[in-house]
Amino acid sequence: MFAYQDHILFRWDTSSEVYNESKKKKRPDFIICTSDGIEVGCGEIKPPDTNSSDVEEDHCQVPEHLKKQLHKRLQVASEEKELATLGFIIFSEELELSKMEFKEGKYEYSIIKLLKLPTMCATFQHMDESSYLNFLT
Predict the structure, then answer these.
(1) 137 occurs within a structural domain
(2) Fewer beta carbons under 10 A from the terminal one: N or C of the chain?
(3) b/e string for 69-101 if b means 16 or more Cβ within 10 A?
(4) Most confident among 8-12, 36-40, 109-113 (mean pLDDT)
(5) Does 90 fall in a domain?
(6) Across the strands, what pairs with 123?
(7) What is the tens place of the pLDDT at every residue in 75-96?
(8) How many domains does the chain have?
(9) Which domain of life is it from (predicted)?
(10) 2 occurs within a structural domain
């Protein structure tokens, strides 16, 4: 997707470059881009009391936005590994990681992982102990 030593930036509360200014749609809560400004992902964050229709709307809009970012990225990509964008949906205590890839001339959307966030004592038990221990060593 991008080299591990590359810097990535999170842009909050800003419009995406993939939409024409005259056709602005609901923008994502954050956009992930490389240091040279190429958008490589986006995400939505919803508090626990959000109604289900708003959450479902985000589940539709994130893949749509990822596809537009990937389409734009196809114009500048120099390697096959660059043909993907990442999506994040955070709702209550859950994090959904997804990606949009361009394979064999088709856009493919997939959910990579559903995670329980360690936001309080009750959910800390869901955190993978091995990842926690890696920070200690």
Answers:
(1) no
(2) C
(3) bbebbeeeeeeeebbbbbbbbbbeeebbbbbbb
(4) 109-113
(5) yes
(6) none
(7) 888 888 889 999 999 998 889 9
(8) 1
(9) Eukaryota
(10) no
Distance between first and last Cα of the chain: 28
- DSSP per position, 64-102: HHHHHHHHHHHTT--SGGGSEEEEEEEETTEEEEEEEEE
Q: Are 113 and 77 in contact (CB under 8 A)?
A: no
pTM, full prediction: 0.74
Q: Please state, as a whole number, how many other Cβ atoms lie within 10 Å of the Cβ of residue 40.
A: 21
Residue 134 lies in a domain: no
Contacts of residue 118, defined as CB under 8 A and 6 or more positions apart, other chains included, come to 124, 126, 127
Structure tokens, 57: 């709307």
122: tokens are: 């009750």
Report angle CA 18, 86, 26 to the nearest 5 degrees.
40
The three state secondary structure string of 110-137 is EEEEEEECCCCHHHHCCCCHHHHHHHHC
Residue range of the domain that includes 22: 8-126
How many Cβ atoms are within 10 Å of 43's Cβ, its own excluded? 23
Measure the CA–CA gap between 15 and 8, rounded to whole angstroms: 17
